[in-house]
Amino acid sequence: MLAPLGLMVALATVVPTAMGHYTFQNLLYKGVKFPDYTFIRRTFNHISHFPLFDLNSTTMRCFEDENIPNPGTLTVKAGDTVGFNVDGRIIHEGPLVWYMARAPTGKTAATMDGSGPIWFKINQTTPYIGTTPAPIERFTWPHYNATEVHIQIPKCIPSGEYLLRVEHIAIHIAFLEGQHEFFGACAQLKITNGLGTGAPWPFAQFPGAYRTDEPGLFLNVHDNWVQPDRYQVPGPPVWTC
Length: 241
Ligand SMILES: *[C@@H]1O[C@H](CO)[C@@H](O)[C@H](O)[C@H]1NC(C)=O
Ligand SMILES: *[C@@H]1O[C@H](CO)[C@@H](O)[C@H](O)[C@H]1NC(C)=O
Ligand SMILES: *[C@@H]1O[C@H](CO)[C@@H](O)[C@H](O)[C@H]1NC(C)=O
Ligand SMILES: [Cu+2]
Description:
The strands form three sheets. Strands 3-11-10-5-6 form a five-stranded mixed β-sheet, with no helix packed on it. The protein is built from one helix and eleven strands, in the order H-E-E-E-E-E-E-E-E-E-E-E. The protein has one domain: Coagulation Factor XIII, Chain A, domain 1. The radius of gyration is 18 Å and the shape is globular. Strand 1 (23-29) and strand 2 (32-33) form a beta hairpin. By secondary structure, it is mostly beta strands. It is 5% helix and 27% strand. The site of one 2-acetamido-2-deoxy-beta-D-glucopyranose (NAG) has 3 residues, from loops.
């Protein structure tokens, strides 16, 4: 159920977004901003910027367009920080989630299709607030309004070829089941200097990792939240070194 105030707030959040959606189209590494879709697989929404709604779609793997050219693979040292420039701004509420997947035997970052239980999560964000209970919308999401996002490649992962998957899940209208919006992209990386002492775990697959009725995807962020730090980010737990 939705109170009239909640609905007004929700609509106010929805209306300006038609023209304000976002993509992750430029890789950032060591102060360099690479051209559009260089080392990043070109996404299905590279022109429209539309969100993906269907979490059962294979497009969930890398948000990839059809018949894309190989964007190339960037060599990156384990422990280094890699970023994505955001085309637009992250103008919806929701978590930023990072995954990696190692290329299966016989495949490379460029040739792997992202199928199977190969994705492990390396970071995620949860909302924070100053006071409890949180007055309506007085909680904040890290990366709200961001124009770039950054992630440290875990130091301990084995060297090898990987996809790095960035995902922003917009949940401002997720009080309606299925109205979560997914934005994301995959970069093709060759990781060197990995300590190799870590064993990433557990693995998830796309589609399959998320359900439309799970608490992190079917909720009303416009309600007062007593403990938003308990927000349950979809997918497996974060793996750390
Ligand atoms: C997604 O797939 C699951 C498992 O097969 C199914 O239960 C669910 O209804 C599907 N959801 C949608 C929106 O198609
Ligand atoms: C996740 O990223 C944030 C920065 O956005 C950082 O402060 C935090 O330490 C990272 N967590 C892990 C487990 O790497
Ligand atoms: C987003 O950032 C821009 C530029 O810094 C600023 O003008 C705008 O007020 C910000 N919007 C929100 C909602 O914080
Ligand atoms: Cu939207």
